[in-house]
Amino acid sequence: MSSHREAPEISKDPVADGTDVYAFVNPNNPAKAVLIANFIPLQKPDGGPNFYEFGDDVLYEIHVSNKGKAASDIRYQFKFSTKIRNADTFLYNTGPIENIDSPNWNRPQYYTVTRIKNGRKEVLGRNLPCPPVNVGVRSTPDFAKLSRQAIHKLKGGTRDVYAGQRADAFHVDLGSIFDLGALRPLNEAHLISMPNMGGVNSVQSYNVHTIALQVPIRELTRNNVRPTDVMDPKAVIGVWATASRRKGRVFNSKAGKYVDNGPWVQVSRLANPLFNEVIVPMAEKDSWNASAPSGDAKYTKYVNRPELARLLPALYPGAFPNLAAYTKPRADLNAILMTGIPAGVVPGFQNFTGPVQADMVRLNLAVPPTAFADQNPLGLVAGDAAGFPNGRRVGDDVVTIELRAVAGLTIPLVDPSYEVDGAVNAVSDGTSDENPKPPNSFPFLGLPGGGYQTVPGTTEAS
After folding, report:
1. Backbone angles phi, psi at 64, to 5 degrees
2. How far is residue 257 CA from its own chain's centroid?
3. pLDDT, tens only, 2-39
4. What is the pLDDT of residue 251?
5. Strands 236-252 and 207-216
6. d(Cα 428, Cα 402) in Å, to the nearest integer?
7. Which positions ≥6 away from 19 have C-beta within 8 Å?
8. What residue segments make up the domains of the chain, in order of their start?
9. What Å distances lie between residue 295 and 69, 299, 356, CA to CA?
10. Model confidence over 226-251: pLDDT tens digits?
11. 163: which strand partners?
12. Beta-carbon count within 10 A of 300 CB
């Protein structure tokens, strides 16, 4: 999946596990950009009595690079603190939570937002309340109301923030893909053939914890202006998210809790979907999570010659003969994932951030946003320049886009002599987000599924 349990060590630490990063210009207000980082994957809505929440011992950050060096030129930090109102009950809530400040909510969580630019720290908001999780129809009878109450204006009134549980909008057929690289719509062509069928979204009905930030575009650019020229290098930013923990952690048996000390150490990183998941070998995934984008040159070899591009012709015999015969380094994938797309590759477009090889979500802030009703989920490859890999919108079908790119769809952009295999346009995992449509307003992710409303699935041994 995008980055849910994508590395051995972070899979043991879900509170610090980043799952998805989104970056796009708001179609409702083109003067503002939206940055979203999701954490804590695969949350079953009925996960009580200890429901999901941000970690008080984790430093969550959204990074912006705007000077072409893959450095963190602007950082937005989020630190959380949790209170227990009634120490004599095991209950998350002792009655209906009808407002975000309800005394019936026994474990409220608050956070502080800090912006760091050029070494200068500015606190944008303190003690901002999160919403509770969506417990169920009795405990959280109007979660939409609680959600609205959890959207806060930050210092100056031009920024909006939300931190709390939402529905996971990412969709992928994990059960099939990790069963020897199978894509259900192409089952018949697989080496171990089965009947074709639609995909099964493994993330359906699960929740995540979202940090969503909406800021004026001029706040993100190197020259503090809102760009209008798509070909201007200063119009492009790189975005990624991280989670960090203190270097030392000791369990205090007298206090009955862990005590953390020392400097912050990064344990999770995420930008482009599926990068660490599919590109980086297992033995290097944990190191990747602990490193900065500016040091990603060491991973370039895996982008230029991805393992999945070798596996597809082997798993689907005869379906990808041209891909199997292609031996050149994948300059198309390198441009998409490591440098941004230079001018001259896609007419009238670029999101090039310079020669530094780095995994970042690159967003050209001068590209006009596409109205919600007109957005193409296949983004740039389908002619919608406001979509992935130019930033990433909530509705972009990144799994299909990246699968087709790896399968050779984007090679002709840099090598016109290459002929795309006929099977490429059929490549898809066959899934969609079947949750109610996400709202076309901040924070742009759907309301989380409720615990009472959850209907567990069934298991089958064969």
Report:
1. -130, 125
2. 31
3. 678 887 888 999 999 999 999 999 999 999 999 999 99
4. 81
5. unpaired
6. 9
7. 1, 2, 3, 4, 38, 39, 40, 41, 168, 170, 208, 270
8. 10-426
9. 11, 9, 9
10. 999 999 999 999 999 999 999 988 88
11. 211
12. 16
